[in-house]
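RECORD TYPE: inverse folding
INPUT: structure tokens
STRUCTURE:
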């Protein structure tokens, strides 16, 4: 089980002896489960502080929805959404990561105090990203990604899902390192729900230890996603409401922690901290 921390992580988090819990804070009008809820700056900051009090180690601030069919935003719009929130949370001594596919947004937010760059495209959306990351001393999340929200559902075609995702993620890793990114700063993420049909996600999760065995810290973002909504659908096939998917999210977080992941990215932080503690204890019982 490899769960060592990436280089560049804030000192106090390096001491943590359980998987990291990252709280989701979408400052967007249209994200899939909390879009519009925290669109106003002050409510976003208050929610970020509340997540931090609930036990989130890092708050992941995003200003562009990545859901299928979402409208892309330009750099200025994204920065105007995220930068004030990043600044206010950093001023409140909260660790912040920036969820962006844009190098300029990443650079500005790290300058404002963000301690991690979470790029769901893993460098594939912006050719300037690797060079920008190489200049920062913060960890960098490389997520498996095949294309933007407008097309990603059409791209969910695999021969062998887990094998294909591992191979494509390895290509992204190689490109990042060739582009100057410090390998010790990299976190990998299989990208649940991104160009993946419902069953594809379960296959990826079933092979989670193979991702862990690649030797990089692994982050998992299952929280409230469609594959959980489908699993919990009612008798008429209607997916479970977003806010009622947290029990299933916690179950995934516990099993992921027992499988050796480095961190989970979730909407409901309190129960997720318990879930990763269960997973850690489970894994220790095995040793
Ligand atoms: N999922 C979403 C957004 N950002 N980042 C990482 N690293 N991994 C994910 O799975 C991920 C992400 C989409 O979910 P949201 O709309 O709830 O933020």
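DESIGNED SEQUENCE:
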């Amino acid at each position: 089980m490899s769960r060592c921390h990436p280089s560049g992580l804030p000192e106090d988090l390096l001491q943590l002896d359980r998987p990291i819990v990252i709280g989701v804070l979408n400052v967007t009008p249209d994200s899939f489960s909390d879009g519009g809820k925290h669109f106003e700056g002050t409510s976003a900051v208050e929610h970020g502080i509340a997540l931090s009090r609930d036990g989130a180690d890092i708050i992941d601030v995003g200003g562009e929805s990545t859901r299928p069919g979402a409208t892309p935003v330009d750099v200025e719009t994204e920065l105007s959404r995220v930068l004030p929130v990043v600044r206010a949370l950093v001023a409140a001594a909260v660790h912040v990561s920036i969820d962006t596919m844009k190098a300029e947004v990443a650079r500005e937010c790290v300058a404002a105090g963000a301690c991690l760059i979470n790029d769901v495209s893993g460098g594939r959306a912006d050719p300037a990203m690797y060079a920008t990351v190489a200049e920062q001393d913060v960890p960098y999340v490389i997520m498996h990604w095949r294309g933007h929200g407008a097309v990603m559902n059409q791209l969910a075609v695999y021969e062998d899902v887990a094998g294909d995702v591992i191979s494509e993620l390895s290509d992204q890793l190689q490109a990042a390192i060739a582009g100057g990114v410090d390998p010790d700063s990299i976190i990998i993420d299989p990208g649940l729900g991104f160009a993946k049909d419902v069953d594809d996600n379960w296959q990826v999760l079933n092979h989670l230890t193979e991702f862990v065995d690649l030797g990089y810290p692994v982050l998992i973002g299952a929280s409230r996603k469609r594959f959980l909504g489908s699993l919990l659908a009612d008798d008429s096939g209607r997916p479970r409401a977003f806010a009622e998917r947290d029990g299933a999210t916690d179950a995934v977080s516990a099993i992921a922690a027992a499988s050796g992941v480095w961190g989970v990215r979730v909407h409901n932080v309190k129960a997720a901290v318990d879930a990763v503690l269960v997973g850690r204890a489970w894994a220790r019982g095995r040793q």
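NOTES: Residues 230 and 239 are 5 Å apart (CA to CA).
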